[in-house]
Design goal:
The structure holds three protein chains of three kinds. Chain B is mainly alpha-helical. In chain B, 76% of the residues lie in helices and 2% in strands. Chain C is mainly alpha-helical. In chain C, helix 4 (54-73) crosses helix 5 (79-99), helix 5 (79-99) packs across helix 6 (104-127) and helix 8 (142-157) crosses helix 10. Classes of the chains: A alpha/beta, B mainly alpha, C mainly alpha.
Chain lengths: 290, 237, 213
């Protein structure tokens, strides 16, 4: 029979789960600062941006009725969905309310299945292809293999290499696609879900405005493209979702995640400080004894 | 149309999610079953998804209005050549087609390196001087630090094998820059992944039907097993 | 002597034909980056390779299933779990072939088993990060002290805690993340890309070979 040992690291996991459950049962709203990349994300959608890597500069005037938005569901969306869900939902709602024409591509089957289960039914009902907006304001390409190679090809002619949507419809027959084909000129705005490589394919050559969404930790590797000016804004993790909810005034569920991160962070800082103070005191007592 | 097994899915979903977590207790049958289901279902799905992708991209386009689309022949030939991996005598055909794919992949990516190097270096270099125009602000100083950190980081990677002066200081400072990156990465990864758990926990509490009792039951089973190993029940029989 | 040199050169070229052809093809494809819309045959070739990619991706699944079938045949100790892998894969394949990839049962099984399972495994591994942070993060050296300090800063920045203590804390954390972490990430990726260019240069000098396993 095993006993209880407080040196057992499984106590740490029990503590973490307890914090998560308590935070989920009794969420409290907290004040949060809005980081610059989130402000820029909202500003680009709301007011627009100028992209001037190549001549002539491209002036994007924000998302309005008919703005062609290409959404790249690539990167690690399936694995990060629990950390991106509220941000993606609130941005999608905003794009829909502004009348954007949304073209969605998934770079892998799991990314496609994630949005099919957790996003599209919320926005367009259980059968998105039968929603009145389908083909007029929203088209789903589904999973198409090829990654960045495909994006290189789509820059000139999307329909030539991908003639059908995810549901088997001819893209050429869908009204929204009549002016949405050569992505280098026809995509007014691109939003990548943890997508990489778009800077060199589109931004620096064709001045395509590009925004990025990802998980909390995506910022570590996506920040380079934001600082270098390729991304015109970023929305990272559930905190990003909460920031966008504040900026846009569109209600959502992001805030319930913040109490969890607050408690975990407070506990972790406390443990690190106490453990290190104890360590230093122990070290100095050992030194004194010797 | 909804699948007839749909009513069972919230329970399966919760079982799979928390079943994977039981590995934190120890390697156990619940975890192994979960792992096997994830691998098997994933392999089957991915195979069908690839067949569907080839069907949409190539098969349906091979004959257009009754005419053969010649540009679709090469994907067919390459695809069939890949199957030679299963025929030991024809393995060189598989190797040849793999080299072709590798070649194209590298060819597509190759220009990104110099292009990204040039544009990033140029932008960082230009932004570093923003403080002359904007004065000393958090952003202008940040851009200056970005350029310095970038050079130091590069020097760490490029001069690792050259331990002698004059690169030693740059490499040491580059190591600090990378340490900062690592520290931020570790913490944000941990915090980000906590959100994944809470997302599912909220689903078990707020979703319909509520499935919070499944992880609770798993926890009780693990607790009991900790004091009275459940495998004893099997071995006694 | 000259004949021997010629033979050596000939055998060198012959032995590196895949690499030489690969390099030529690679530069052909690379040239498309600089040309819009690009040279017709090269574009067709590139498109064909992209369109054929589902084959190697599908073969990976077949090889995985085959490995577990072999385990079953050999009656390995993992037999019950191998049987679950193979059975679940075959059920999915049957569902997909009969009902198509849009079949509801096929789609719902994937979403409720694979997607959620993968997410759980990823997050379980990442959550186990907390354990070493609690057990190992001790200020045994200036480097470790620095690491602990930065971790506390990141915890305070990416939760409302920092803002509650003082608004400067999240600003400082964001500043470090944006300007220093971003720059070191740039350095890392660019070093990787430059490394790839160096690899190609070595291939041109025939010091590396294109040889898939």
């Amino acid at each position: 029979m095993s006993g209880i040992s407080f040196k057992d690291k499984r106590w740490i996991y029990i503590m973490i789960f307890a914090i998560i459950y308590i935070s989920s049962l009794a969420p409290i709203a907290f004040p949060i600062p809005i980081v610059n990349w989130s402000k820029d994300f909202y500003r680009t959608i709301d007011e627009g941006v100028v992209v001037d890597f190549a001549d002539p500069p491209r002036e994007f005037e924000g998302v309005t009725e008919g703005t062609r938005v290409f959404i790249l569901n690539s990167g690690e969306t399936a694995k990060l969905w629990g950390d991106m869900s509220e941000g993606v939902k609130v941005v999608w709602k905003d794009l829909m309310s502004r009348g954007a024409h949304i073209l969605l591509w998934s770079s892998s089957p799991d990314n496609e299945a994630t949005l099919n289960k957790y996003l599209l039914p919320l926005m367009y009902g259980p059968e998105p292809q039968n929603h009145p907006d389908y083909g007029v304001k929203f088209v789903n390409l589904g999973y198409v293999a090829g990654g960045n190679q495909l994006l290189e090809q789509w820059k000139d002619d999307l329909i030539a290499i991908t003639p059908n949507d995810a549901y088997g419809n001819n893209l050429a027959d869908l009204p929204m696609m009549s002016n949405f084909n050569a992505l280098k000129t026809d995509a007014d705005l691109m939003i990548g879900f943890d997508a990489r490589g778009l800077e060199t394919i589109y931004v620096v050559r064709f001045n395509t405005p590009l925004l990025e969404m990802g998980g909390t930790d995506s910022a570590s590797y996506l920040a380079l493209s934001y600082t270098a000016g390729y991304f015109k804004g970023m929305l990272m993790g559930q905190r990003g979702g909460a920031e966008y909810e504040l900026l846009s005034g569109i209600p959502g569920n992001s805030f319930s995640y913040l109490q969890n991160t607050l408690t975990i962070s407070a506990v972790m800082i406390l443990i690190l400080v106490v453990a290190n103070v104890r360590y230093v005191m122990k070290q100095s007592s050992v030194t004194e004894e010797t | 149309m909804v699948s007839p097994i749909e009513p069972l899915m919230p329970y399966l979903n919760t079982f799979i999610f928390f079943g994977a977590y039981t590995v934190l207790y120890k390697n156990n049958p619940i975890y192994r079953i979960t792992q096997s289901l994830v691998v098997g279902v994933g392999a089957g799905y991915l195979l069908i998804a690839q067949i569907n992708a080839f069907n949409r991209g190539v098969v349906t386009q091979t004959f257009v209005d009754g005419n053969l689309n010649v540009s679709m022949l090469l994907p067919w030939i390459m695809g069939l050549a890949y199957l030679c991996i299963f025929v030991p005598k024809l393995i060189s055909v598989y190797r040849a087609v793999s080299i072709l794919t590798l070649t194209v992949g590298m060819g597509v990516v190759l220009p990104y390196g110099p292009a990204l190097f040039w544009t990033v270096s140029k932008t960082y270099g230009q932004n570093a001087l923003n403080f002359i125009r904007d004065g000393i602000t958090a952003a202008s100083m940040g851009n200056l630090f970005t350029a310095i950190s970038y050079v130091l980081g590069l020097s760490y990677f490029f001069f690792t094998e050259y331990a002698s002066k004059p690169t030693t200081t740059a490499r040491s400072l580059g190591r600090i820059v990378l340490l900062i990156y690592t520290a931020m990465c570790i913490t944000t990864t941990a915090l980000g992944k906590i959100n994944l758990v809470q997302w599912k926990v909220l689903d078990t509490l707020q979703g319909y039907p509520a499935t919070w009792w499944i992880p609770a039951l798993m926890f009780i089973v693990m607790l009991v097993d900790n004091f009275y190993p459940l495998k004893n029940l099997i071995s006694r029989n | 002597m000259v004949e021997q040199q010629n033979q050596t050169l000939f055998s060198l070229i012959l032995g590196n034909i895949p690499t030489i052809l690969g390099i030529l093809g690679m530069f052909l494809i690379s040239s498309l980056y600089f040309m819009v819309p690009g040279w017709g045959p090269a574009v067709t070739f590139r498109n064909s390779v992209t369109l054929s990619l589902p084959w190697p991706a599908g073969i990976v699944s077949v090889l995985l299933i085959r490995r577990h079938v072999n385990n079953i045949i050999k009656k390995e100790s993992t037999l019950p779990y191998d049987a679950i892998v193979v059975a679940s894969a075959l059920i999915m394949i049957a569902l997909g072939l009969i009902g198509g990839s849009s079949d509801e049962t096929f789609a719902t099984l994937y979403a409720n088993v694979n997607i959620i399972g993968t997410m759980a495994v990823i997050s379980a591994i990442a959550i186990s990060i907390f354990s070493p942070m609690i057990r190992i993060y001790r200020a045994k050296s200036p480097t470790m002290a620095f690491l602990i300090g930065l971790s506390c800063l990141a915890f305070a920045t990416y939760s409302p805690l920092g803002q509650m203590i003082h608004p400067v804390i999240p600003q400082l954390g964001d500043w470090v993340q944006t300007y220093i972490s971003g720059a070191s990430d740039s350095a890392f990726w660019i070093s990787t890309y430059i490394g790839a260019v160096a690899l190609v240069t070595r291939m041109i000098l025939l010091k590396e070979k294109l040889k898939p396993s």
